[in-house]
Specification:
Blueprint (H helix, E strand, L loop, with lengths): L2 E7 L8 H9 L9 E6 L2 E6 L12 E3 L4 E9 L2 H8 L8 H12 L9 E9 L4 E6 L8 E4 L3 E5 L3 H4 L10 H8 L15 E2 L4 E5 L4 E5 L14 H15 L7 E4 L4 H16 L5 E8 L8 H10 L2 E8 L8 H8 L8 H13 L4 E3 L4 H5 L4 H8 L3 H10 L8 H12 L1 H17 L19 H6 L2 H8 L4 H4 L2 H10 L2 H14 L4 E3 L5 H9 L6 E2 L2 E2 L1 H6 L6 H4 L8 H22 L10 H13 L6 H21 L6
Parallel strand pairs: 13-14, 13-16, 14-15, 16-17
Antiparallel strand pairs: 1-3, 1-9, 2-3, 4-5, 5-6, 6-7, 7-11, 8-9, 8-10, 11-12, 18-19
Helix pairs in contact: 2-3, 6-21, 9-26, 10-20, 12-19, 14-15, 24-25, 24-26, 25-26
């Protein structure tokens, strides 16, 4: 979790001012607790805010080839041994940034395809007068930029860019409507109309006359043939991924919620620390009161009793989701889709006090390993109704719906009689009513929240149809469903939210599930390795045999924090919500459907235990937007 920044003055030939890059770094000083430095050469300036988490020498930028190449990078490369061999480098301690430059010299702009790990970097090539930028495969490291006719600038955060002279701070209605709908569908836009993000798995090449965006990698299954024992291969890849993310600083900890994902990581990391004769791994757990539906302490205790871990319990009593919210909005530089972020920040804050710099996080286990729900569609599509019945019977309590209703829902979609009837109805509508008719999306949960005029201006219905619904041909295949879920805009959005929150506590989150070889392997698995007898993510459960305590390895339930969020808002923020949503709601009126929001608020107050997820989302997002718009209106510092 370092920070990068840079400025390229285009066309006019003026020298880049060192004061500008210094100002950008100053606004990211929380990312550079171990120092910062900058480099200038005529029209280009590069800066680096350094948090030492890899044990390398000093902060960049680094130069090579007599200053003809310079790089600034926030990166951790996992395939170092392979790169050292292919690049002919004999020094095993060579910095990751040096490997990046050597890779660029050898492979040019194709170099990111040879990298594994988390990275966001920019290389200045003086001979080509080109700035080459790249972001990792999943968007774990952030990269924002502003592109003007005379100046291109980039940074790890938005604030340093907004502080530059001439950058317009106009907010984006497109982004606001997407936030309210829970749809981060645009991988490039941000909350500000003139600030953009470099999408995951993309490169950007900037010259005096052009800005060229290219995608260097597509999420695809591994081409390697699967071994006979998938669980054994998964365990090997997962073990190596955890090991790679423990490289560098000894100040490493791990989140431990008691769930399958974080527990698997904590156990493997604890075993590796013990094997290397290092101190016990520090773990951090949120603990709710006994008897609460959020209480996972029995599972946490089971893991602690199974391995040598140095556990810290963080007691959550009177949960207040809008506590410190103005500060959180400043950190996030806008609104965000993470109501539980204040809880995650309490883990970062505690880890900082314990001297931790790197925190292993189980985020993404659901998406990467997959629950295998697409297999149910495959069984129905293939007419394997008995096998589908057995699988649904095993998972009757998992999907939140009765087994019979689920079974008949699949019959209605894939059964032969229903299919013929549906095809006839579709043909009749197509021939009779739909000719020359503009697209109309089915009413979605967001339709009650978003102001209809805003939805119309920002083409929200069409956007939601394009990116918010899984296409029927995709849902009918587990492989396609899996890939679709990994490709949604929610993936990089979550990483950016967590990165900004952690950065303010000097913490670098690392995510062992988001490892390129592991992702490709999981995508190649057949559905039966992901779902069987009602157990999703089966390959992970099998791989953790003997490592996880059985009570965690085979647990089916997953904690739903909705009730906790409702209680926290009603008990601790009633006055705030009354003001934001009722008495002082003019600020959000152009964006939200106030009558619908107030109706949802009334329902939540009358029957909090019956509050639906859409109602809770409406209230939380409306209040969040109101607080952020007030901050922007008052000239709040976005850094």
């Amino acid at each position: 979790m370092s920070g990068v920044a840079g400025i390229l003055l285009r066309q006019d030939g003026r020298p880049a001012a060192a004061a500008d890059i210094q100002q950008m770094l100053a606004r990211m000083r929380h990312r550079g607790r171990d120092g910062s430095s900058w480099w200038t050469d005529r029209s280009v300036a590069l800066g680096h805010a350094w948090l030492d988490t890899t044990g390398e020498d000093g902060p960049g930028p680094l130069t090579m080839a007599g200053g003809k190449l310079a790089v600034t990078a926030d990166c951790r490369l996992d395939n170092r041994d392979e790169l050292l061999a292919r690049l002919g480098i004999r020094d095993p301690t060579a910095a990751d940034a040096k490997l990046l430059m050597r890779a660029y010299l050898k492979w040019g702009e194709a170099c990111p395809t040879y990298l594994q790990g988390d990275f966001a970097f920019a290389i200045w090539d003086a001979e080509r007068r080109a700035l080459f930028c790249a972001r990792d495969h999943f968007g774990i490291k952030p990269f924002y930029y502003h592109a003007g006719a005379r100046r291109f600038a980039f940074a790890s955060e938005i604030g340093p860019l907004l502080a530059l002279e001439g950058v317009n701070t106009r907010i984006s209605e497109h982004q606001i409507s997407g936030f309210l709908a829970g749809l981060p569908d645009d991988p490039q836009s941000t909350h500000y109309a003139e600030i953009f993000r470099l999408p995951a798995r993309h490169t950007l090449t900037v010259t005096d006359n052009q800005v060229t965006l290219r995608q260097y990698w597509h999420i695809e299954p591994s081409p390697e043939p699967l071994r006979s024992d998938a669980a054994e291969e998964f365990r090997h890849l997962f073990y190596r991924s955890v090991q790679n993310r423990m490289r560098g600083t000894p100040a490493i900890g791990a989140m431990l919620s008691g769930g399958l994902d974080s527990s698997s990581i904590a156990c493997l990391a604890g075993l590796q620390a013990a094997a290397a004769r290092k101190p016990k791994l520090k773990t951090f757990s949120l603990v709710f009161e006994k008897g609460s539906p959020m209480d996972e302490k029995p599972f946490i205790d089971a893991v602690m009793g199974h391995h040598r871990l140095d556990g810290t319990m963080i007691s959550i009593g009177n949960y207040a989701p809008f506590a410190e919210f103005e500060r959180i909005l400043e950190e996030q530089e806008g609104t965000f889709l993470a109501p539980g972020l204040s809880l995650t920040r309490s883990i970062y804050r505690t880890a900082e006090t314990k001297g931790v710099k790197v925190l292993l996080d189980g985020h993404g286990g659901d998406e990467v390993v997959s629950h295998g729900h697409g297999l149910l569609h495959e069984l129905a599509k293939a007419g394997r109704w008995l096998a589908l019945w057995r699988e649904l019977h095993s998972a009757a309590n998992t999907y939140g719906e009765g087994m019979l209703s689920l079974y008949f829902r699949f019959l209605s979609i894939y059964g032969p009689a229903w299919r013929i009837a549906r095809m006839r109805a579709m043909a009749k509508r197509f021939l009779g009513k739909l000719r020359h008719r503009p697209f109309q999306a089915p009413r979605s949960a967001w339709a009650g929240l978003v102001n209809p005029e805003l939805a119309r201006r920002t083409d929200l219905a069409e956007r939601f149809h394009r990116a918010g619904y899984m296409p029927a041909n995709v849902s009918a295949s587990e492989a396609l469903t899996h890939r679709w879920l990994l490709s949604t805009g929610l993936v990089p959005h979550a990483f950016e939210v967590l990165d900004k929150a952690a950065a303010n506590f000097g913490i670098e989150p690392r995510y062992p599930f988001w490892d390129k070889p592991l992702v490709e392997f999981c995508l190649a698995l057949p559905g039966e390795e992901k779902l069987k007898d009602g157990f999703g993510r089966l390959v992970l459960r099998r791989a953790m045999h003997g490592i996880l305590p059985p009570v965690v390895q085979w647990r089916r339930d997953k904690i739903d924090f909705t009730a906790n969020l409702v209680k926290g808002m009603i008990v601790n923020h009633r006055d705030l919500l009354d003001r934001l949503l009722v008495s002082d709601s003019d600020l959000i009126a152009p964006y939200v459907n106030l009558p619908e929001v107030n109706a949802a608020y009334g329902r939540m107050l009358r029957e909090p235990e019956q509050a639906t997820l859409p109602d809770v989302q409406h209230i939380w997002r409306s209040a969040s937007l109101s607080l952020w718009l007030r901050q922007v209106q008052q000239g709040g510092d976005p850094a």
